[in-house]
Amino acid sequence: MNDAELARLIAATAGQLLIDLRLAELFKGEAIGRIGDRLANEFIVAALRHHRPEDAILSEEEADNPARLSARRVWIVDPLDGTREFGEGRPTGPCMSDWPLTASPRSVRSPCPACRSP
Questions:
Q1: Three-state secondary structure along 67-89?
Q2: 112 falls in which pLDDT band (50, 70, 90)?
Q3: CATH number, position 84
Q4: Element containing residue 109 per DSSP (H, E)
């Protein structure tokens, strides 16, 4: 699976996790935003580490690892772009993540339409 396919699959799966979190109605407001961010981040980072173990990861939700500065490739993750909007139940695309690769000047944007409000 190439990087673009992997990014789309990870984003779509993270989006489904967020939909399930929202539909469970166990959390509201700021709480669901914080929990959604953590849930999506844990999944995305675990999937990337499993499928691209040699790549570094810079995530908005984790402490920066300076080792990424010397890595050949770095995935940049924003697991829930629109945390506040997600918490408010607004129909934005909260699971849009950028996956730039330092070894290449391109970026694969993986919008996750599944994250839109049900």
A1: HHHHCCCEEEECCCCCHHHHHCC
A2: low
A3: 3.30.540.10
A4: strand 109-110
Is 102:83 a contact under the CB 8 Å cutoff?
Answer: no
Greater pLDDT, 112 or 62? 62
Q: CA 10, 15, 21 angle in degrees (round to 5)?
A: 130
pTM for the full model? Answer: 0.81
Domain count, the chain: 1
- At residue 110, φ and ψ (nearest 5 deg) are -120, 80
Residues spanned by the domain of 80: 3-115
- The CA-based dihedral angle spanning residues 97, 98, 99, 101, taken in that order and rounded to the nearest 10 degrees: -170
